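User: I'll paste a sequence; please echo it back and then give the predicted structure.

Assistant: Echoing your sequence first, then the prediction.
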Amino acid sequence: MKTKIVPDAWFIIMLALSCTFHYLIPVARIIPHPYNLTGIVFILSGFALTLAANFVMIKSHTTNQPGETPDMLLTTGPFKISRNPVYLGMTIILMGVEILLGSLSALIVPVIFVIIIDRLFIKPEEDVLESLFGERYSEYSKRVRRWL
């Protein structure tokens, strides 16, 4: 399944949905203040992970754009803990927003995001990596999990 909507746009859409669900369909507040402030830690951690992964890609002179062919297989930095640290970082940010909002209605958004990203981007990207890097990618994918 091809999509013209890039992961960054899906991320923004999901942020907007979170706020929409929270304010227009407030089912229940399940994380009260001040506990909801732990969401800030998640947001900052996800942002740091995303930045670190992008930094590694830029430093390695390989693409960070979905759909483009990578020049090398990255296995260092954040790529040691996740094969998809940028998508993981985005998911952690969304989880942080959900915790910060604290409402039950918005909790579905990170799950939807993971499903969309996994099906529309990760699986096709992994097929490309497998065809480009063969056994090296197979060994890497055995050592490092897709998400975390």
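The first helix runs from residue 7 to 24. The chain is about 65% helix and 0% strand.
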